[in-house]
Each structure stands twice: as structure tokens, then as C-alpha cells.
Design brief:
β1 and β2 form a beta hairpin. The protein is 32% helix and 27% strand. It contains 4 helices and 6 strands, in the order βββααβββαα. The chain is of the alpha+beta class. The chain has a single domain, classed as Uncharacterised protein PF10387, DUF2442 (NE0471 N-terminal domain-like, 2-Layer Sandwich). Strands 1-2-3 form a 3-stranded antiparallel β-sheet.
Length: 103
């Protein structure tokens, strides 16, 4: 088994989200593109919600406050998909539906 050791901490510089992909530009010049299907909350979000992100710290993670979603750049590099359980996601989705009906 090989262990990944990073020379420097990967930091995000810019983020963009389409209907199909999450794209993250890193400060070292690399760009990551991952399928939005890896992150069900982003997949279910509106375009407005997807664009409401912020970098944490110097860019070690990306947060979408409206979606209660947090993605670490190191995890993206390692190919980690969302670890949220199906039950948790379904509960979150039901809460979204209930709150949209109350507006």
C-alpha cells in the first residue's frame, strides 16, 4: 500500500460549478475537475446556491454555507467523494423541500 505524501498543502484559488462539474483552480497552477455527482448536495443545489461558496483559511477547503457543504482540497486531490450517508442526505433533502414550501 502506498501512502500519499504532499510536498506542500494544496490550496484553492478559484472555484466554479456547472451543472455537471466542480472545478477548482489551485494556487500552484493546477486545476481539478470532478463530477458534481460526487457531491449530492451540490448536484441538488440551484445555480445561485452553487455560486455562493467561500474559501476557508488560505484555501485549504471550500464551503457552501447555504448547503452545509464543506469540501477539503486535499480530499479532492485524493479522489474522495462525499462521505455523507444516504440517510443523512435524504434527511437534508426533505428539510430543503419542507423549507421551500414554508416560504
Amino acid at each position: 500500500m502506498t501512502t500519499l505524501t504532499l510536498e506542500t498543502e494544496p490550496l484553492a484559488l478559484q472555484v466554479s460549478v456547472t451543472d455537471e462539474n466542480l472545478m477548482v483552480d489551485l494556487v500552484d497552477g493546477r486545476s481539478l475537475i470532478v463530477p458534481l455527482s460526487w457531491y449530492p448536495r451540490l448536484l441538488q443545489a440551484s445555480q445561485e446556491e452553487r455560486q455562493n461558496w467561500q474559501l476557508l483559511g488560505d484555501g485549504y477547503a471550500i464551503e457552501w454555507v447555504d448547503l452545509d457543504e464543506y469540501i477539503g482540497v486535499e480530499g479532492l486531490l485524493a479522489g474522495r467523494k462525499s462521505g455523507e450517508s444516504r440517510h443523512s442526505f435524504e434527511r437534508w433533502l426533505a428539510g430543503r423541500s419542507a423549507s421551500s414550501h414554508n416560504e
